[in-house]
Amino acid sequence: GKLLVIPIDGSHWLSMLGVIQQLQQKGHEVVVIAPEASIHIKEGSFYTMRKYPVPFQNENVTAAFVELGRSVFDQDPFLLRVVKTYNKVKRDSSMLLSGCSHLLHNAEFMASLEQSHFDALLTDPFLPCGSIVAQYLSLPAVYFLNALPCSLDLEATQCPAPLSYVPKSLSSNTDRMNFLQRVKNMIIALTENFLCRVVYSPYGSLATEILQKEVTVKDLLSPASIWLMRNDFVKDYPRPIMPNMVFIGGINCLQKKALSQEFEAYVNASGEHGIVVFSLGSMVSEIPEKKAMEIAEALGRIPQTVLWRYTGTRPSNLAKNTILVKWLPQNDLLGHPKARAFITHSGSHGIYEGICNGVPMVMMPLFGDQMDNAKRMETRGAGVTLNVLEMTADDLENALKTVINNKSYKENIMRLSSLHKDRPIEPLDLAVFWVEYVMRHKGAPHLRPAAHDLTWYQYHSLDVIGFLLAIVLTVVFIVYKSCAYGCRKCFGGKGRVKKSHKSKTH
Amino acid sequence: GKVLVFPMEGSHWLSIRDVVRELHARGHQAVVLAPEVTVHIKEEDFFTLQTYPVPYTKEEYRHHLLGHLQNFFETEFSLKLVLQTMAAVNNVSTFYVRSCRGLLHNTALIQSLNSSSFDVVLTDPFFPCGAVLAMYLRVPAVFFLQSMLCELEFEATNSPNPSSYIPRLLTLNSDHMSFLDRVKNMLYPVPWMYLCHVNYGSLARLASDLLQREVSVVEILRHASVWLLRKDFVFHYPRPFMPNMVFIGGINCANRKPLSQEFEAYVNASGEHGIVVFSLGSMVSEIPEKKAMEIAEALGRIPQTLLWRYTGTRPSNLAKNTILVKWLPQNDLLGHPKARAFITHSGSHGIYEGICNGVPMVMMPLFGDQMDNAKRMETRGAGVTLNVLEMTADDLENALKTVINNKSYKENIMRLSSLHKDRPIEPLDLAVFWVEYVMRHKGAPHLRPAAHDLTWYQYHSLDVIGFLLAIVLTVVFIVYKSCAYGCRKCFGGKGRVKKSHKSKTH
After folding, report:
1. Which of A169, A496, B270, B320 is least surrounded, with the fewest CB atoms within 10 Å of its CB?
2. How many Å lie between the alpha carbon of B426 and the closest alpha carbon of chain A?
3. Which residue of chain A is at minimal alpha-carbon distance from B456?
4. Of A383, A398, A395, A310, whose CA–CA distance to A342 is shortest?
5. Which residues, at least 6 apart from A47, have a Cβ–Cβ distance to it below 8 Å?
6. B407-421 and B348-357 helices cross at what angle (nearest 10)?
7. Where are the beta strands (DSSP E) in B379-462?
8. How far is CA A102 from CA A118, A135, A148, A210, A220, in A?
9. How far is the C-alpha of B420 from the C-alpha of A308, rounded, in Å?
10. What ipTM did this prediction achieve?
């Protein structure tokens, strides 16, 4: 079959790659389309790359990423940070939106896609550009995602998520909340739409223009046949799910390669103490000097060899046991038996690699869902969370010594690891199966819940409840009135009869 | 590992049996626990049968369990029938309670079970005596079921169950309901809830005595680590479910054997017209004579060879093309390319065998969920439903000719069949995987939703909503009052000042 892929730049793309490779090996033809200005999305041997022109440059995208990484370390007051973040999100998302708009208005390019007669479309709906293309080309869509902000994924799948035990993202709540935490959860639920509207509603307007019918963001997302979600209930809290959701958390952990000579040498030289892997993800390239020196000092105080992926200036106080590298094979290093701990920004990829390889973590969440990820691992006793802005060298040293020397951390992560890896089918195979399924059957309409065709008050049966209440009240009213009338007739009448009797006899 | 199996009588046992056989094949030891008085559960070489004495005889049991079935051929579907059904359910459950008490108070047997230290209890919770036993023995449990009375499986797992698009059992509603359908959907379960309360109440009391703490049926059911549900979304409407629910619909269709010589001969002799398979399930042994003759007449009018599983008296007008047998290998016959149609009572086993083998159906639902099953297949255009009480020979003849000669029926059932059989893993393997999973990890606590620990008003966030409403109202009230006060001060005050001024100047 023929598959069209519309990915999103960044780490999201990297885990999609495995699926594409597998699909190609199974004999499918894969076409990936991406803006000309892309950082991670490059030509590959197992797919056809088609790029479309966009009104921004590679440098703009890089700059946006770099700035995002840097802004994390700004020591601004809370409100200023919120305003700055808001402005940045608005700026970046309008840049990406303009890319999408350029694609959809590129008549020649769109026509060539139409003529290719694809069987299905695989896309990351984090930005719903692919969803618009799917509707424009009338292709069944498979989504590949971690989670969408503001619970858009739950809304678009009609998946119930009771606020009483399903923590909102960014709330730092767990699934066991006290009363005030549940109040917080509810308040976030009531307000999150305002924040999301900035990013998502322009896509609604764009789609309305392109498809020439009124569509909301929810309408754009809900036709997806299958949602491949990079979640796993070992990491995430159990909650209701829908039949067209397929959980493939840990898909990025699978492909393990032998270490290169360079890294093999580092690991072997580490001796009995082993190594610590340290990476804050591809977004963070530079850390403010003072912070970097504090980190370097803490790293120098532990006996393990530290492999630190860092592209910024080398801190002057870097100890001998710390090796700075521009890039490291994170999953392969964590899979080595000598890996003792993992210092991570707790992005979902890193967390799953930590779980899958059973390495306790020291987590420094920077933004987005990273706080939630860190919280989940901490409550399960598999890691320690540090506030990257406030932490001192001592804090980091203590955290590292705790997760390495306190056996409970290792035990907990090993338990999670064994639960996570015990599954009837590998996530990569599952993802490939469902993409092929949608290609074979041209969608999966039998998995679409009828809830999509109801209004909100019908969904909650408010009309039925109102109707039944009205009946009950009417019956009660009638019974009451007729009783009252009957009573008046009986007693009131008697009274009057008596009276009239009296007056007669008198 | 060691598996304790506590099955239910009847066709329920037949599909759990396949799982037991597979577990045995993988090197596990299975002990099947059953009352001395059983109809279907018999000794076999892949498990140890452990029986316990019960305070009733086989005749009593047979009479009460099967006696009421005769009603379905004699009574119109009416309030009377509903009441009869309820009485029958009550009757049967009284038996189960007696049987369960017999087991749980059998100290010697319980002790020997306890000392065997099982790794898991595999049980059908239709009547959850096995669940109580698992709780008592402190062994994790895996449930294996089609569905429960009052849809208790959803309440017990805390799956959301909106009545707006999920048709309730026995309502014959589809997932797209009109307003009145939805009213019916909401009201219909009410009397059943009473029945369930009565039925399961006595078991809950029995369990409370045994465990020496107050437990409800729902709490007993929540002991399950994993629910293996014999459902499939090709046949059931898509709906929310929980991570510990695993769908294994069609599990009974997996093992197909070659036909015996006798049946092979029948099939080969059928010529180009092929065969029709006719069975009303293992529960129906006799049909009233008049009805049987009508059926026999209709069957004689079609060119196909009929294989009719019937243990009652041979109808005198039986045609040459109809062969009466005491038993038939239903799944193997349906799997034969010469199978043209399937006359069934539309029990869930039969329906799945029909779907899996792609044979269009003529359905004569008798009781329970069979009506719903028939309705579902009919709306999907894969079969025709007949009312067994009202149908004439002509109706049956027409129905048979329609499903055999009208190609759309064959096409629809083949489409359903291809969707149903297109799955990443076979249901039997999936079921066995989850039983082993629970054995390996001693349960699956990470799949237990936190919702179980909430009260109903907490679950629906009513306390939070009330609290927030109270705050909003208080704020509104205070603002209003202070505004009113302010206004009075400003305007009212001015007025007074003016007045006093006036009075002074005067």
Report:
1. B320
2. 10
3. A164
4. A383
5. A5, A20, A24, A30, A31, A32
6. 100
7. 383-385
8. 21, 17, 24, 12, 18
9. 50
10. 0.91
Q: Which of A240, A433, A460 sits opposite B242 (nearest CB)?
A: A240
Instruction: Name residue, tokens 């540090």.
Output: A386
Give B385's strand partners. B363
DSSP A247: E
Q: Contacts of residue B449 in chain A, CB cutoff 8 Å?
A: 165, 175, 237-239
| Residues on chain A touching B447 (C-beta within 8 angstroms) | 233, 238
Per-residue pLDDT of chain A (506 residues), as tens digits, is: 999 999 998 878 888 999 999 999 999 999 999 999 888 899 989 999 999 999 988 888 888 877 877 777 777 777 887 788 888 888 888 999 999 999 999 999 999 999 999 999 999 999 999 999 999 999 999 999 988 888 999 999 999 999 999 999 888 899 999 999 999 999 999 988 877 888 899 999 999 999 999 999 999 999 999 999 999 999 999 999 999 999 999 998 877 788 899 999 999 999 899 999 999 987 787 888 899 999 999 999 999 999 999 988 899 999 999 999 998 999 999 999 999 999 999 998 899 999 999 999 999 998 878 999 999 999 999 999 999 888 999 999 999 999 999 999 999 999 999 999 999 999 999 999 999 999 999 999 999 999 999 999 999 999 999 999 999 999 999 999 999 998 888 876 554 544 445 454 45
Separation of alpha carbons B239 and A328, rounded Å: 44
CA-to-CA separations, A348 to A238, A257, A368, A370, A422, in angstroms, rounded: 17, 21, 11, 7, 19
Task: Quote the Cα angle for A244-A248-A254, to 5°.
Answer: 155
- pTM of structure: 0.92
- Using CA atoms, how far apart are residues A306 and B94, in angstroms rounded to an integer? 68
Q: Measure the CA–CA gap between A53 and A100, rounded to whole angstroms.
A: 10
Q: Is B234 helix (H, G, I), strand (E, B) or coil?
A: coil
- Joined together, the tokens standing for residue A295 give 């980190």
| B464 to A425: CB separation less than 8 angstroms, yes or no | no
Write the burial class of residue A463 (CB in 10 Å: 0-12 exposed, 13-18 middle, 19+ buried): middle
Pinpoint the alpha helices (H) of A301-426.
330-334, 348-357, 370-379, 393-405, 407-421
Tell me the residues of chain B between 128 and 187 that have a Cβ less than 8 Å away from chain A. Answer: 159-160, 162-165, 175-176, 179, 182-183, 186-187
CA-based nearest residue to A449, from B271, B228, B167 = B167
